[in-house]
Amino acid sequence: MALVVTGLSQDGDVHALHQALADAGLPTDPLQVIGPDESTQGVSRGLATSGGDILTSDLGMRVPGINSPPGHSAFFRNETLPDRLGDLEIPDGEVDNYVEALERGRSVVAYFAHLDNVDKVEQIFRSVNLTNVRRF
User: Fold this and answer.
1) pLDDT of 54-85, one tens digit each?
2) Residue 6: how many CB atoms within 10 A of its CB?
3) Residues whose CB falls within 8 Å of the CB of residue 26, separated by 6 or more in sequence, listed in order
4) Residue pair 68/74 in contact by the 8 Å Cβ criterion
C-alpha cells in the first residue's frame, strides 16, 4: 500500500509545504528533504540511547543505561544515496531518476503518510507546486 508521498522541489524551499501541512492539521515531522548538496557519507542521525548501537558520536565510550544520560546520541551511518532513497520506499527502477534530479539541483521531498491522510498529503504536495508527485 502506497504511503510515502514524494515530489521534487526546484529550490529546496519547503516552507510553503510545511505551512500547508500544518494548516491541514497534519504533523510536519514525517517530512523529509534530501538536497542536491547533501553529503551521503557520515550522515548523523539522532537515536534514543536505549537502543543497542555500537558506534556512537562519542566513539562508543558510553553505555546506554549505565554511564550515559537518557536522551539521544548521534551515530553515523555510511549510506549511499540510492540507499537513502530506498528508505523512502522509492522502487529500485525509479532511484536513478531521483539521483539524476538531485544532480540537476533539485531536492527530493518525502512525507511518510498514513492510510487516512495519504490523499490529502498528495494533494498538498501538488498545491505547493512540487513536481513529479508520486506515492510509493
Assistant:
1) 444 555 555 555 555 555 444 444 457 777 88
2) 24
3) 117, 120, 121, 124
4) no
Q: Is 53 helix (H, G, I), strand (E, B) or coil?
A: coil
- Residues of the chain short of pLDDT 50, as ranges, are 39-56, 72-78
- Give φ, ψ of 33 to 5 degrees: -130, 130
How many angstroms separate the CA atoms of 96 and 5, rounded? 17
Determine the Cα–Cα distance for residues 39 and 18; give it in Å rounded to an integer: 23
Task: Report residue 61 as a C-alpha cell.
Answer: 565510550
Residue 15 is inside which H or E element, if any?
Answer: helix 15-23
Packing angle of the helix pair 118-127, 15-23 (nearest 10 deg): 140
